Q: What sequence folds into this?
């Protein structure tokens, strides 16, 4: 009888340990399931294709801006206006903002950089195309490679 209770107790403890291990991944492991609640989709941005925009996104994130964009198309115009305050247009350049104005995280306090129109507009078109099927509220994590 004691052997049966010992085996049952061991089985229960083992099951509990397995469940706990699945909830707390080992540091440095490739298991990213614990972070899945902070975003819904990952977008790998091609820095080789849009080098100025890619460098801007990477630098802005390194400086503390969000790497997650919560899509919210309503209010884009207002957020862009807030973001660009104090950054007058310069001939031959576009004003790129990160986070983008289509993101809830955009607007006042965004990182602004003057970049070439072809890079900025190409990148904007590329991102817009990639995110066109995602609804407002979708959280997109940007990774620049």
A:
């Amino acid at each position: 009888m004691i052997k049966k209770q010992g085996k049952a107790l061991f089985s229960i403890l083992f099951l509990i340990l397995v469940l706990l291990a699945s909830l707390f991944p080992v540091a440095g492991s490739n298991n990213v399931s614990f972070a899945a609640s902070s975003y819904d989709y990952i977008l790998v941005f091609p820095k080789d294709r849009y080098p100025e925009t890619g460098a801007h996104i990477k630098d802005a994130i390194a400086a503390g801006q969000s790497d997650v964009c919560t899509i919210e198309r309503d209010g884009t115009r207002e957020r862009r206006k807030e973001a660009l305050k104090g950054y007058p247009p310069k001939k031959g350049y576009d004003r790129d903002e990160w986070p983008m104005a289509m993101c809830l995280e955009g607007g006042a306090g965004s990182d602004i950089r003057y970049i070439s129109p072809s890079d900025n507009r190409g990148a904007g078109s590329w991102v817009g195309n990639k995110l066109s099927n995602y609804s407002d509220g979708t959280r997109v994590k940007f990774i620049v490679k």
